Amino acid sequence: MLETAPICTRGGESPCIPYAASSLKAADKSFDITLLPIGKTPAKYHKYFEKAKKRWEEIVVGDMIGYTAKEAPDSGWFGGYFGKGSDFHGAVDDIVIGYKIRAIDGKNKVVGNSEIIKERAGRAAHKARQQQTPISAVMEFDSADVDDLIKTGYFQTVVLHEMGHALGIGYAWPTPRAKCGGTCTAYQEGANWDCVAELKFRHLVTSRPDLKIDITGGLQLENTGASKADGTACEHWSETQLGDEIMTAYISSTDNPISIVSVGALEDLGYKVNYKAADTMKKEHLPQFSSRRSLRGGDNAQPTRLHMASLPRRMVPEGVLKLEDRGAIVDDDETDDEEDCAQT
Question: Where does the signal sequence lie (predicted)?
Fold first, then answer.
C-alpha cells in the first residue's frame, strides 16, 4: 500500500510546489544504496564503489521513506551537479549516489569530494527519525590520483570513507534531534541529550582498557584544518583518539575499521543500524601503538589529510525537500520532541 506524501520545494516564486505522486513503500525493509556512474567513468572502477556500498548496507539495515520517479525534482536528484543531461529523475529507495572519475586539479592535491544534494526535511508523522537523512549525494575523484591510490591499496578506503560522508556522517551534523556534532570540539557538546556515538565511544574505552584511548573530554572531533570548509576540521573523528578508524580525516593504513562509534553516529542521524556488523578496533589501528604511514609520503612522513575539495558538504539549494506531516506543511525549524531512544 502506498502512502500519500506530497513533497514541497523551498525557494523560487512559490514557497511550496506540491507533487501529486505517492511515496514508495518498499516491498522489503532493507536499506538500499543505488549507485550511478556518471559520464565516462571507466567500468574498471565500479567494483570499488560496489564493495563500499555492500559494506555500508551491512551497517545500515532499516528501510527509509522512498520516492517515485514522479516525485523527482525538476532539476533531478543531483540538482544539476554533474551538468546538463547527467541527472537522475528515477525512483529512489533509499538513497541514490552518483559518482564520477574526472580531472580535478592534478596529482597529490585534492583526491576527491562528496556532497549531500537532497535530504528528507520537515517531519513525517511516524518517520520523524528520518528527518535530515540524505536522499541523494554525489562523489567525485581525481583521475590523476585514482590509479596510484589503487596501486597502493588506498582507493577502496577513500571510497568507503566518502560514502560514509554521503550517508551523513560529518556532513549532516548537527544531528536533527539531539544536535550531536554541532561544534568543532566534542561531539556531544551542546547536545540536547546523550548522543549514541558518545555512548558507544565510552563503551569502547571502558570495555577495552588495553587500547589506552584518551577519554578526556569525551568523543572529540578533528580540530585541524583552516575551517569546516577545508574538509577536515569538525567533520571527522579525532585522529589522536581513533587513529585509523574509517571516519577520521587521515589515511595511514589500508586497514580502516568502521567502529561502533561511526555506527552510533548513523543511529544519531536516524538510521536503523546493525552493531554486530561493526569492525573490532585493534591496537594497530591507534597512533599510540603504531607507526604512521602517509598516503603520499614515506614511512616517517606525517599522516596526510584526506583532503576533499573546499566545497559545501551539505548542498541543499532551492531543491530542499520537505516531507509533509501527512497534512499541513511543517516549518524547517520546528523541533521534534520525540523521546530519546539512545542505546548503549
Answer: none
Q: Is the pLDDT of residue 296 over 60?
A: no
Residues 6 or more apart whose CB falls under 8 angstroms from that of 312 comprise 115, 229
Query: Cα(212)–Cα(290) distance, rounded to whole angstroms?
Result: 13
Is 203 among the annotated ligand-binding positions? Answer: no
- The Cα–Cα gap between 163 and 130 comes to 18
Pairwise pLDDT comparison (122 vs 329), residue with the higher score: 122
**102-117, pLDDT tens digit by residue?**
998 888 877 888 999 9
Q: Options 3.30.420.10, 1.10.132.80, 3.40.50.2300, 3.90.132.10; which CATH number does 172-288+304-312 get?
A: 3.90.132.10
Contact 18, 8 (CB under 8 A): yes
Could you tell me the strand order of the sheet in which 321-323 lies? 7-9, 321-323, 112-122, 134-142, 95-102, 33-37
Q: What is the per-residue pLDDT across 146-164, written as a single tens digit (0 to 9) for each?
A: 999 999 999 999 999 999 9
Q: Note the pTM of the prediction, 2 decimals.
A: 0.81
